[in-house]
Amino acid sequence: MDEDPYAVLGNGWNFTESRERFTELLENTMGDLVTAAADAGYGAKMFATKEASVKNITIYSLVQCTPDLSSSDCHKCLESALARLRSCCAGQQGANILYPSCNIRYETYPFYRINATGSVTPLLLPSPPTPQDSPTGSGGKRKFSPKIIIAVCASIAFVVLLFSVGCYWRSRGRAEDIKYIDIQYEQSAGNEITAVESLQFDLGKILAATNNFSADNKLGEGGFGAVYKGTLSNGQEIAVKRLARCSLQGATKFKNEVALVAKLQHRNLTRLLGFCLEKKEMILVYEFLPNKSLNNFLFDLPENQAPLDWSSRNKIIGGIARGLLYLHEDSRLRIIHRDLKSSNILLDQKMNPKISEFGTAKICGVDQTQGNTNKVVGTFGYMPPEYNTRLLDSESTDEFLLSCAWKHWRDGTPLELLDQRLRDHSYTQNEVIRCIHIGLLCVQEDPADRPTMASIVLMLNSYSVTLSSPKPPAFSPQHNRTENMPSVNEISSTEIYPR
Question: How does strand 102-107 pair with strand 95-98?
Answer without folding.
Answer: antiparallel
